[in-house]
Fold this protein.
Amino acid sequence: MFSVVQNIPGKLFLTLSLLTGLVSAFVNPIMIYFLVEELQTEPMYIGVYTASLTISGLIISQWLGTMADKGFSSRKMYLLATSGMVLALLVYSQTTSFIVVVLAGISLMALGNAAMPQMLTISRQWADNNKVNVGSFNGQIRACISLAWMIGPPFGYMLVSAYGFTSSFLVAIFFGVVSLLFVIFLVPEQSIKRVKNQQEEQIKIPLSFWFLTIAVILGSTSNIIYSSSLPLYTIKELGLPGYVPGLLMGIVACIEIPIMLFSSKLSKKIAKKTLMMSGFCFAMFFYLGIYHASQLWQFIVLQLANAVFYGFYAGLGLTLLQEQLPTRIGFTSAVYSNAIKIGLMFGSTATGIIAQYVNFQSANLAAAAVALLALIVMLMFSSLKIKEQHKT
């Protein structure tokens, strides 16, 4: 499928990223819709679920990421995290209680959220051991995740429309179990270099790293504000068919895959930070366009701008973060995944508040403002990085 990884082990990790992505792709896009439509939750309480899940997930996944850098098996931690996700989805599929969903989220899904960073860590360990081009390989990993999102949301919304929310949860459970079996029987342990001494473990993290992390959080926040408001905006406020949100998510995932793969090649000529900044410019254009759109064809055409934004943002963000701390891959992978989850928490909470007091359409203006803030933070990151390089 991808030219950089020709041997079987490399394709195994690409397949694993696809399977892991499919579990999330059949669940995350419908969760806000599930909370509001199925559980009859007030929009402002959406933040209660996302905040509780995110905070507990941050603690767990960051701790597991640190353990991976110390030499603990990321493969075993992936199995543990995926098992937690499967159990949480079993609970979601059998209850209509908001409290039960929140408790399952804190205790089980929070553990499950560590599956993605552990998958990224295992994959990066393999890439380092086999001396492949890390930038291209990360782009391929992200492309496989986008492929999952090209499949999951359209079919997820079709299942919800035809059979209810439980059907989409059960499909996600199926892919979770397949992921577990895939890792148990096919994915080998990766040899890793343990931290040699305390000084290396406690290497000072530059301020620029945290500004880049903030930019990743803001990029995720803007994306989640849009995607969280999309189902209820298009279905409830515009009266479009129920399959439209999944269709749009599938279209953008399809377009962004070649952009992600191309971004790693383009980054050899243009700096990654410059490409990410241009991505945020496309994001602002996209969200403002969505705010004014009212016809299905307008939503479809605008997905090209969304694909460019997310292709650059997701295709290069992980690699750019890992380049800042090359000896702490587990830590940076966890930081990246947690930044995405913090954005999920902020974005979902903001969407609920805006919808409660204004409407879902106005959420897109907030998404555009957040994208502008992300662009400003990236400029600050670039300035700090230059100053830090001059000091060294």
In short: The domain at 8-186+204-391 is CATH 1.20.1250.20 (Growth Hormone; Chain: A;). Confidence is low (pLDDT under 50) at residues 1-7, 195-201.
